[in-house]
Amino acid sequence: MSRAKAMSTLGRAVTMQGIQRDGPHDLVGRERELSELARTLDAVQGGSPRFIQILGEPGIGKTRLLSELSRCAGERGWLVLDGRAAEFEREVPFGLMVDAMNDYLGGLEPPVIRALDDEALAELAGVFPSLPHLDQGEPGVERAKGERYRVHYAIRGLLERLAVRQPVLLALDDVHWADAASIEAIAHLARRFRGPLLIAVAARRLPVRLEASLVAAQRAGSGSRLELSALSADNANVLLSTDVDSPTRARLFRESGGNPFYLEQLARSTRSLELRTPHAGEPREGEFTPPPVIAAAIRAELADLSGEARGVLDAAAVAGESFESELVGAISTRPQPSVLSALDELVTLDLVRPTDVPTRFRFRHPIVRNVVYDALPRGWRLGAHAAAATALAAQGAPPMHYAHHVERSAAPGDETAIELLVGAARAAATRAPLTTGHWLLAAVRLLPADSDPDARLDLLIEAAGALANGGAHAESLSTLERALALLSGSRAERRHELIARFAFIERLSGRPRRARALLEQARREVVEAGAGGSGALELELALDHYLSGEFVDMQLLADAQLRSALAVSDPVLISLTAALLTIASATLGGFEDAADAFAEAWSRFESLRDDELARRIDTSGYLAVAAIKLEHVEEALRSVRRGLRVARETGQASMIPGLLALETNTLLLAGRVREALSVAETATDAALLARNDQLTAWALESTSLAACLAGDLERALAAAQEAVVRSERIGEAYFSGLARMQLAGALEATGDAAGALAEVRRVAVPPPRALLDANGGYGWHLLIGLELGLGNTEAATAVVERMEATHVTFELPRREAATRCARAAVLLARGDARAAERLARQASEIADGIENPLLGARAAMLAGAALRALGEPEAARDRFQRAEALCSACGALREADAAARELRRLGHRVPRRTRGIAKPVGLAGLSSREREVANLVASGMTNREVAQALFLSEKTVGSHLARIYEKLGVHSRTVLAAIVARTDSHHGSATVPELISRATDAGDDRLAP
């Protein structure tokens, strides 16, 4: 492609005074960026997804660069889907995704759409108006309504299907104005997409929720970031027509600051050099205000419009960044022929531009719309928004698509507007909870001063719940504070319920200690007032003690609350508090008491109707935890899956991430690794959407264990590292300990036994029993294996004795089998193979009795090793074959590979597995050149010094270093140096997450190589 062709842009050439538009000028000075776009297109053409950020100030050329990317992709035969977010439509759910995809989906052949499953089709139909015929409201769809990540899966599934046919470009402009639901969908695509997709986002700055995903993609080598700077004077001159004299060129450049759009806008106006009047009025909060001279230049450009054209342009500014001529006619009260004639004039003057849809147009630039909208008389603007809402309603548009017009036009006390906003909010709740919260609060603002206080209170509580579901915890808490202010001292019980809810959301936000302080203060107030009704507060305190690992305090409170629930015969609270008592008692070793409490909890749970359970969905979760403590695996699965079903039916999205994490742990306890890994991925997606570090750490910890068993060690290590960082961020020792235990397991699996043992010992010396018992006693198995692997037989024996001492008071078959396996491993290390084989055989029989393939396979492996030591190769081969078959069937590919290796040692031919084999991780995963660069950087050399030492360019060193950071999961030289030092010395207790934390504390948080 010639340079001239590469620098051309989409759209019709426009010639006007002062601007040169007859050649390859629009992208002058962007050669580096164009080269990066070409490289990215080539990479996606190879089949892998890529992500580009195009960042810069308004008017700097982001849109033009994005348009050039779209043109080039179109020439290559790609499917190009482009959309633009709009400043005044930020509350329309999935507005950006609809703008990009809706028209294309409406024109797809039915077989393409129908190839997706019914649930995905219904999710898509709930978002994209062009697919209304697909939303049949099947019962299965209703069950999924609490999980907004499902719509992300549906969008991803559709795009992946389209990408099979041809590469796809999703070009998204003005993403800084995108609605929250669209941002969540884009972030999901950045994390999960597989196939030839390029997502290009242009923004002044990236929304926080999207930035983390795109930065992660950049670190992983699948993303790039282009930050556009102002043009030089020479480049700016190229954009100006030849009839502009030198002094004027200099003044235009100075006025524009090298910003291409500002330069163009000033040159459009014959009076640009005199337009220095300040912008009238104060900037609107949260909205962009263009520089005064640019706004004045645009107003001067508008001054020459005919009255008809100006009326249509004003109506268009209300209709949207992208607008339909029919809606503009309804707002401006003009017939369509007049509207179309006026649009012709506006297109000729390049104030608006046509789109691929004949009746739809766009403003030339968002800044143009901003200036037009800002100049509208306030009264006229209110009426125009009301007209827009009326017209869209008459067209049959869902209230979600015009609620923003109602919000901008309704007056306080407008009951119809309040009803519509509330209805639109509730319709959006399952897919766009942040929008739901926004519209409910808008409805509250419209309530008259003398409205029913309870109605205001209910709307505030509902808004707080929606905001919490969307992860906007600060806004949710602020809304609850408003609700609390409405409650007088005479309504103590309702106030206590709200304080308990406040504490729950505080814990969701990752500030459990503050939540406890609130609860304890409220309890003191209750005691001082001599009032009752503190049960809700004490129940929340019991849960807080649980999540903080304080099981003695939890046991005391749960026992007291169970007695209270029995006294009033409340079946839901009886089940919940009995489950909590089960957890506390079992954790503290009181298994007899735990069994009695569980029997009470389970019998009450089974008698509950779904509508009763919906009052406290968390009962299902805590009952599942209690069942896991007592190894009632089937009951745990039944409980958690019922909870998920009811949560989905009733839209209680905040309950779903924790229940999914529990389902993962239960499946692992049952040895169903393949299923567990799939659920763990969904649990992580749900927790990330909830913006809950606690739940995300828990889901990641489960993912790490499942991935480790499945043989995906790179994923296991990355998930464990992130789990540690997130759990320590919220300061909860118990969950931090669980995460460190999984990190130890991932390190052990990658060959770093010393580092793994150091992680276990960091939890405590010796580690608390609660942590060793978690995940079916995984900690015991890990710690004993580590000690034996390092030759510490005596230490391993001591751990086994501790393990045996905890299991003598109550018979749990899984723990009994695990204990026998542990003792067998120690006996085998001591040379007593006969006793080891006997214990391993007993463990295998127990595992078969409880249908646990993973535990049975471990017992078979130990028996095989013992039989081989006894000189019985045929019998050993049978045991290893059984272990390999069991592990392969349940998805535990790492242990299946270990069994296959033992079979090969015995001369038995086993086909090598092409999947599930771990990739090298850590420094072992670096190429020889990358290890050289890492060593030199760790020694303190700069990139330039490394380049000189290795006879490389400085740019090549930077590229190597970026890949090193990505492979190691770090982003600073300090952490890299510490990893190199630790690996070289083969000891040390500092972990990657800790080193990252230390470097951040020291101010070394550099992302650039």
Word description of this protein:
With 1009 residues, the chain is mostly helical. The protein has 51 helices and 8 strands. Strands 2-3-4-1-5 form a 5-stranded parallel β-sheet, with helices on both faces. Strands 6-8-7 form a 3-stranded antiparallel β-sheet. Helix 9 links the parallel strand 3 and strand 4. Helix 2 packs parallel to helix 3 and helix 30 runs antiparallel to helix 32. It is globular. The protein starts with a helix and ends in an 8-residue tail after the last helix. The N terminus and C terminus are likely disordered.
Strand content: under 5%
Q: Main beta sheet: strand number and arrangement? A: 5 strands, parallel
Q: What's the gyration radius in Å? A: 32 Å
Assembly annotation? single chain
Q: Classify the helix fraction into a percent range.
A: 55-70%
Give the strand line-up of the largest sheet. 2-3-4-1-5
Q: Mean pLDDT, nearest integer?
A: 82
Q: Write down how many β-strands occur, each being a DSSP E stretch of 2 or more residues.
A: 8
Uncertain runs are: 1-25, 134-144, 270-286, 915-919, 985-1009
Q: Output the structural class.
A: mainly alpha
For the termini, the CA-CA separation is 32 Å
Number of helices: 51
Overall spatial form: globular
